[in-house]
Specification:
The complex is a heterodimer of chains A (about 1100) and B (about 325). With about 1100 residues, chain A is α+β, with helices and mostly antiparallel strands. Chain A is built from 37 helices and 34 strands. The longest helix of chain A is centred in the last third of the chain and has 40 residues. With about 325 residues, chain B is α+β, with helices and mostly antiparallel strands. The chains are: A alpha+beta (about 1100), B alpha+beta (about 325). At the A-B interface, α8, α30, α31, α32 and α34 of A face α2, β3, α4, α7 and β9 of B. Chain A: Keywords: ATP-binding, Hydrolase, Magnesium, Membrane, Metal-binding, Nucleotide-binding, Translocase, Transmembrane, Transmembrane helix.
Chain lengths: ~1100, ~325
Amino acid sequence: MKRYVYINDEDSSQDLYCGNRISNRKYTVFNFIPKNLWEQFSRFMNQYFLLIACLQLWSLITPVNPASTWGPLIFIFAVSATKEAWDDYNRYLSDKKANEKEVWVVRQSTKKHIEAQDVRVGNLVWLRENDEVPCDLVLIGTSDPQGLCYVETAALDGETDLKTRIIPPACMGIDFELLHKIKGVVECPNPDKDIRRFDANLRLFPPFIDNDVCPLTIKNTLLQSCYLRNTEWVCGVAVYTGNETKLGMSRGIPEPKLTAMDAMIDKLTGAIFVFQIVVVIVLGIAGNVWKDTEARKQWYVQYPEEGPWYELLVIPLRFELLCSIMIPISIKVSLDLVKSLYAKFIDWDCEMIDHETGIPSHATNTAISEDLGQVEYILTDKTGTLTENKMIFKRCCIGGICYGNETGDALKDVELLNAVASCSSDVVRFLTVMAICNTVIPIQSKTGAVLYKAQSQDEDALVHAASQLHMVFVNKNANICEIRFNGSVDHYEVLDTLEFTSDRKRMSVVVKDHQNEKIVLLSKGADEAILPYACAGQQTRTFIEAVEQYAQLGLRTLCLAWRELKEEEYQEWSLMFKEANSTLVDREWRIAEVCQRLEHNLEILGVTAIEDRLQDGVPETIETLRKAGINFWMLTGDKQNTAIQIALSCNFISPEPKGQLLLIDGKTEDEVCRSLERVLLTMRITTSEPKDLAFVVDGWALEIALKHYRKAFTELAILSRTAICCRVTPSQKAQLVELLKLCDYRTLAIGDGGNDVRMIQQADIGVGISGREGLQAARAADYSIGKFRFLKRLILVHGRYSYNRTAFLSQYSFYKSLVICFIQIFFSFISGVSGTSLFNSVSLMAYNVFYTSIPVLVSVLDKDLSERTVMQHPQILFYCQAGRLLNPSTFAGWFGRSLFHAIVVFVISIHAYAYERSEMEEVAIVALSGCIWLQAFVMTLETNSFTILQHLAIWGNLVAFYIINWIFSALPSSGMYTIMFRLCGQPSYWITIFLIVAAGMCPIVAIKYFRYTYTPSKINTLQQAERLGGPILSLGNIESQARLIEKEGSPLSITPKNRNPVFEPLLTDSPNTRRSFGSGTPFDFFQTQSRLSSSSYTRNCKDN
Amino acid sequence: MDVDGGSLASDAVVVRSRRNKAFYQFTQQKLPACKPVLTPPCVITAFLLIGAIFIPAGLVTLRASHLVVEIVDRYDTECVPDAFKSNKVLYVKDVSIPKNCSRILKVHKYMKAPIYIYYQLDNYYQNHRRYVKSRSDQQLLHGLEQNDLSSCKPEEYDNGLPIVPCGLIAWSLFNDTFTFIRGREELKVSRKNIAWKSDRDHKFGKHVYPFNFQNGTLVGGRKLDSNIPLSDQEDLIVWMRIAALPSFRKMYGRIEEDLDADDVVVVNLMNNYNTYSFDGKKKLILSTSSWLGGKNDFLGFAYIFVGCSSIIMSAIFMLLHVKKSKEPNGWHIYR
């Protein structure tokens, strides 16, 4: 399917496509209530509570007042509906702002100012400098005579550098006035979300020249939400509008995230529900049998002989309602409450404030803090996330002399400054290459200072460094570069630019020096792309050594070279180049080949070393988190070597003897397949060795691997703890996240740019760094932090505590509900299985909502281990990752405890209050007090650290229980009138209560003590060490395999979850592993396919 | 003055800064906390202590329970004439058959006044849901003014007129009566103040008189004197305090005289109440009371049991601890 866009044609295509109105709203005013209710009721818990609440309206079966369920239910619904409404309103406001922005559009051949939402497909849109692009446009005119314009695409892909866009050749040279009247058709594909591709054609109608089809690419477009920079005006045709733009299509609706813990709680709730149904059925049958055999004889009950048709259902339904408290309605409210408090703790945390910018950390999504404690994979962006995204020229090696080695900063090296001052020819040539061999655009600001707009931060750094060394790139006027050096101004004419590609790994320019009319080739590029082409006879040894030295320091190296061209040679080559440039088939390859012809016999000038400084604490953070058992993947749009270098310098991968790097690449399916299999083989062999394996894959190979060899790649993903993916697109990042999620891993994606947004939204947890590339990632993320190093604290402190606390809170909530429910069930056995409630409505409601909910809320302050201990022993996170604190078996423990406590309370209270004391209200209050007392002690036992608030909540709650009951006992109208006063005056009441507490707590304390002392978990060991001041013990390795075996139910059954397959380590070395790879690469590197330079480079190096 | 003002202000500042500090500590999750730890000495001591407290306490409660003298007499089977032994229900339902019966109780131990008289029903489900719900507290308090009697089903109206007191509970009021004779003279039995004062004052109306009660075809339990207000119908008030267990005792009255050991008390009773149709038991109990209430050995034995268990526990833990500490590494070193 294609769409044909008729330029400036107001009759056709008006209503064919959607308008430019952007809408991110989920609801409208009218559908809000039904849709929101529908959404809320799609949750099982809510359906359940609604059903219970409805059943309670039937007075024949209800044991308690229906208000006790309706009240909380309506409250819960109102709260979440309000939240949704507020969010949607904010979305509406931001949409409205975008929609009402005014733009210039040609209507009836005149420019009109209209609102952005009224732009239609086919309209001609005019933009001025710094305007935001309102919809996807095809460029047809700019103010630049060359037909160029510059855009900032940060909002789209997160890259802040300026990109050049060019008008299609067919529109070249159309007069400003005529643009208003331009007519034509753009044939373009249906909207998609690929921001790198736009395969369309343009045909202009007469009188605008020929009716040749002119192909369009992404270079001819301006995409929505980009900004126009450095260009006075542009004019374009709207091709995609509204939500159908590239941006709109890629803006997936982020699905609400559910934590692993929520899923587990849901699962346990389901189990309890099943249990409840079983209890209801059993008791229902028992009740009906008892009714028919016994109750009919009990004349005082007056059972009618013939009941209504539903008679058989009445008793089961009564039990259903009695048991409905098994699933505590308070759990949702409590969880929401504590979760928002966890989020607040993150917001408040002073140790996570970025002191440079003063930006505190922020939790946008308040619901998923527990997941932070269960992270297994971290997928991180590189630039701006691990690094500061600030390139600084640090060292250089010119003509064999290294500068900056002592000072660490070449710009401050006196020798270099002297060399510059004395105009040493090597240095001057070196600086010239630095200043000219690039695609930087200098902009002279009004103050006279020169600003550089560079596509690559490296070039920016080089140009800046050159200007600091007095070689100032002042101006670029068309093809003439103006360079000021030591006071004199030189002009160079750029004849050709041999662009950078990832294959060539170098770029060159051919310039004509206007001073002496010489034609020179200036090249810069990766060492392996430059050094092999050194002219015969030049010693490259010093350069190789320099490169190696710099790389080990984690600096990004570039080699600079130059060659003087003879006029004839250039002319000859120039023709070939032009021809290659206009080929239609395999253009890139042809160009590369032609470039190769020129780029040889180079005179190596030197090596530059640029530092992209790692953020503070990145290596430590990564090391700590890796110790915590978290696997790191680096997904970067950057090139392979840089990625590897950064990975090395931040402990991501280990250097040679310890680590091994495996490369997957290839251009065709076969190549990728072969290399993938080889890597897999190596992985399997070496898993038993204590070696850090990592694989490296580039975007192209990844695309193929994901498409055709998904299974193999998944296996690889599971086997490898570390991976580096270079040159990946935003959607590939998201795909990788998806892949890991499918393997049932908890993933955290961290990034800082717009290109990370999709990955952030896709991952279980998205963390955005509010950094240099704007706030886009931070806004889309669940958490935003100022610096990468805060991740450590976010996961180890906040995530871990949140997990522990929620684990306790949720299980405790079930425990306390089960206790009271079991008592009711036991009571039904002595009340003729008729479904009588022992407790009255007030007590039941207060028990669930008040007596037991308040103390457990302060468990959000509980800390099992101090922050310092956790940081020192990050392995302890394993307990959270493996879900050791909340799983069916721990839950079974709590279930058993509730059963035991219910038995203790019930048996003791009915025996102590037997015969003449067996008054219903009294027995009920005795049992209830027993529960409350036990609860207080259970809370005390399970609390690891008592702050004043915990004491207040636990003991205050106990006091409050008595006060509330005294109040109720003082009201003559209440059923409990005088009961509590009466009980408190009886010695036997207190004796009974103490008995309940002792009988209920002693076994539990004994078991806990026994386990704590004789079979302690690692957490217990640390607690003991911490509190008794004992020696800090080495924890040993918490077996990382264990959790993999523990995890059940992988969607991919074929993938071996077991990371410890029994592979005989027959081969110490994979047949394809080249142990030493020339020089310069400090790690084991095995390369299967390497086009163009690499293999020849190896040969070359060995020759040297 | 100045000094005072200054110190006040600084106090305020101190208070505020302290409050701020507390809030800061809260937000940073750094509130000072104590972290108790289950060390062997403290756990062992705690268990020993529980044992040391619970065993004596158990002995004391047991003694209190043993001080109570209690005479229990099951009369429901004995009071049925031999002719009706095979069909007790017929006997109890037939109004024409005289229900009087005599029981001889022997006092085996001196009983000090007041001696409480209870009747006990076994296998009687006062806590059955149909039964529990079948009452109207409003009507008991306000009488006929209360019109909504739906909760009293199935005993709310009779012959189209409301019943006061309505509901199954009142309808099934216990109607056996007892008189006690020692030697020649009748023992003085106080039938007043057997119900809770709070019930008499606030739950049962002073101006509410029984109305249309037990007039129906189906007669349940006792009839009430319609000239006495509900607040003075203490038997009804006692009966309407629902028992939580299927075996329960309700107070009948008090004997205000001491009974000596070997006294013989003859009880003349009317065996009216039907427990035969559901195999219930009826018992008459004479009991003194102690500070702990009636005779109940459960608490004492439970205390002693818990006390002993915790001493055993502490002994086991002590042994384990000693054994572990003898090992070279001590108890808390791992790997």
